Amino acid sequence: MKAPNNPENENVRLVTLRSLNILDTPPEERFDRLTRLARRLFGVPIVLVSLVDTNRQWFKSLQGLDVTEIPRCHSFCGHAILGDEVFIVPDALLDQRFYDNPLVTNDPRIRFYAGVPLVVHNGIKVGTLCIIDLVPRTFDDRDKELLSDLGKVVEQELEGVQMENIDHLTQISNRRGFLALSTNVLNLCKRLNKPASLFFFDLDLFKEINDTYGHSEGDRALIGFSQILKEAFRESDVIGRLGGDEFVVLLTNADHQESKLILSRLEQIRTDSNKTAARGYDILCSVGIVAFDPNRHQSTEDLLEDGDRLMYSHKKFKRTNSLQ
Questions:
Q1: Looking at residue 16, what is its pLDDT?
Q2: Contact, 259 vs 289, CB < 8 A?
Q3: Residue 226 or 122, more confident
Q4: Is residue 189 within 8 Å of 231, Cβ to Cβ?
Q5: What is the total count of domains within the chain?
Q6: What predicted TM-score, i.e. pTM, was given to this entire model?
Q7: What CA dihedral angle connects 233, 204, 173 and 188, to 10 degrees?
Q8: pLDDT digits (tens, 9 = 90+) for 56-81
Q9: Is residue 314 part of a domain?
Q10: Is the domain of 154 the same as that of 179?
Q11: What is the C-alpha separation between 74 and 72, in angstroms, rounded?
């Protein structure tokens, strides 16, 4: 058996895949109707919308299988994303790459495979729409064209998922996207016993910016603060805008000291940004920081509730001291 190689852009590819916030999400009819259609059109027992993650192949939609993921090293789709065209294996038992693959020698006993790479907006291949048969078969140019056309529809749906999870103004995760991604991250932290912290931010005097300079300038302040967050935190941290002037960041695998260093870096970046921009006002914020406790925080919403409470305590403290 030949395990698939990693694409040259594997790191960027994985970041792009995770930015979709779709891994480990429940089934959705918009994808299931496409796999049902492909199953009917091609007359095959198995059709998958498959996303190729670091060490696994996970199925957003599946017809004819009762597992939601398999190891990437066994993946046919891992080979398919290395090219641009439909990847075809007419008979897996006659192919040196697959004849002794566990998916061929054991259930589901794949004999035929055809998969079209799924490409998202930046040209990155995140997975495939694939069809599988338990007997060898041919696949002509018309078949390739039909599978490619269906793949383009799946790509459109993936683009829709991404747009639903992104805040249009700041281009970071919106509340829906943040909750989806952070829930998966926290579950991983639980399994690996890794620390996580939530930073809950609220802009100070934001109403005054809107009232004095107008809502367009308020929008620029929100965009500016999102850029400060992206510069201060790491690429692996989950950054989102909950709505209005509330922002959150989920910091993972960092101890208390590192969290303090990141907050200090953020304050320096924010101060430098205010000096450089010379907008006539400063971007100011209050923050609540809460450490994730799996015994107390049963969900991301629990963590947000604690962060919100601590943030308002910080805001109240600053207001009280400014009057003295």
A1: 86
A2: yes
A3: 226
A4: no
A5: 2
A6: 0.62
A7: 50
A8: 999 999 999 999 999 999 999 999 99
A9: yes
A10: no
A11: 5
Backbone angles phi, psi at 117, to 5 degrees: -60, 140
Residue 68: give its domain's CATH number: 3.30.450.40
Phi, psi dihedrals of residue 313, rounded to the nearest 5°:
-65, -40
Residue 1 is classified by DSSP as -
Nearest partner of 223 among 168, 180, 164, 165, judged by Cα:
168
Range of the domain at 207: 175-322
- In a domain, residue 197? The reply is yes
User: What's the start-to-end Cα distance of the chain, in Å?
Assistant: 73
Give me the amino acid identity at 159: E
Q: Are residues 113 and 92 in the same domain?
A: yes
User: Using CA atoms, how far apart are residues 103 and 80, in angstroms rounded to an integer?
Assistant: 16
- What is the spatial distance between Cα 111 and Cα 96, in angstroms, rounded to a whole number? 13
Q: Which two tokens stand for residue 137?
A: 């078969």
Task: Pick 323 or 59 by higher pLDDT.
Answer: 59
d(Cα 308, Cα 317) in Å, to the nearest integer? 14
pLDDT, position 18: 86
